[in-house]
Amino acid sequence: MFPTIFGNQGNGPVLSPASDIPMLSIVWLWKFWLARGKLHILAGPPSTGKTTLAMALAATITNGGTERGVWPDGTLARFGRIVIWTCEDAHEDTVIPRLEAAGANRNHVFMLSETSENGRRRPFDFGRDLPRLEAKVKELGDVALIIIDSIAQVVSGNSNSNTQVRKDLDPLVVFAERTGCAILGLTHVNKGSKKKDPLDRVNGSTAFGAVARLVWIVARDESDRSGDGVSRSVLVRAKSNLGPTDGGLSYQITPIDLPAQGGVANTSKIEWGEPLPGAPKDILDDAEGGSAPVGDDRKQDGMDFLSELLSVGPMPSEEIRVRTENAGLSWATVRRAADAIGVNKYRPLGMKNWWWALDCGQQAWPQSTAQAGAMGFSGGFGSGAAFGFGAAYAAGSEPKSIWSTASPTQWRSPHQPQATPLGDTAWISKNGEQVEQVEQVEQVEQHEQVASTADRMDAGMWKHMVDCCLTRYQSRARRVDDDEYQVRESIVDYVLETNVELVDAEWIASAKSLLLQGEFWRKQ
């Protein structure tokens, strides 16, 4: 009887035993945020940088497998190509500048606007042209993400109709599954939807949120906690059928001018901030209600709590959150107290987690897993180059260099040009916030010898550059006809280009010569 029921002959439903269906894992582009073969929705109010954020994702993926392809949580991205369809922004003066500002590899980004049919071109139509796009995507290969701005344009009829929205999105879901591409559709939120459930904010039919496997919501942070007048926003997952939703990210949109044909392109890029704990609604409520006053007593309690907690040195934010709960304080109160007393928040090189400190000029960061464990931190370390120095910004009119042109032996903050001693502590200033990086110098004879010979590079800087060179050297594709010197030279050139924002040809030449002559190559 069972073979007849489960067989595929004849008419009627086909029932397949679950034991015959393979069990597969989700293929993540960005773990718990962006999954291959799934539909995602990104919704937010105007001027919160939805398109700019999408371009930041594109930049990360197109640089996957390199030091520039790092997600906001510090994990490395896998390489992939990007397809972008937009009906809201012009390619030449809006989308392309944003891609360039984000650092995308534009050789791997493809703009979709038209379909060629019978020798003529017409606008691309999602209702008619998905099979053709599927063929093109498979022909191109390695397409990881398709960005659609806006997803409402995919709907041919009433975007408030559940039936119509499902009818038009279902082919897109099938397309994602067949091609293995992640699809990110951008849209707006409903007016007056503050304080509502995050998923209810998505504009149009509830089917948009129902059909998508992950729904992202962005909102403007109205508190201006830092008091610098810079507009900031938050990103949360309102829904995920594939993983957790707790936790979010902060970010700000930074204006940037790029040289362009006919003048200057005024564009912007995303600068990621520290991760935010809590449920999606709590994070959104905290951001959108941030201007609400905090009781003086509670705020003072938070200030006293942090001052005592951080008086012994920097601490990972995760540990601070745990102690905040144990002290009976709310995280929102402590965050505002941190801004009031000038707590510095930053992520050391090679670490995925953020740290808080009262005075960066006095405290040193842990530089090894053992040191971190001794300070109550159990997180791991990635490559030191994972958070490339090329993204560093000097404040004010100081030189945009993390290795000071005034004194190349010092790697320091422009805010403390004389007070920072030479030694193990290193600084970066990013967007007006001092970011302390520490290199605990290993007592290795090679490092001391080179630092002494050059007299232009301290041992901490040397060690980091050696680590970067070795990372690329060990991961390179090897060929029989490789010229060893050329291989090393190309690696050194890349490391210097991506890690040094410094216009000093003599210094660059000296550093290159020292690296090429280093003993570390011969030990590989």
From TrEMBL:
Region spans: Disordered: 275-298
Domain AAA+ ATPase: 36-222
Domain of life: Bacteria
One matching Pfam family: AAA_25
InterPro entries assigned: AAA+_ATPase, P-loop_NTPase
Protein name per Swiss-Prot or TrEMBL: AAA+ ATPase domain-containing protein
Organism: Paraburkholderia metrosideri
Source taxonomy: Bacteria, Pseudomonadati, Pseudomonadota, Betaproteobacteria, Burkholderiales
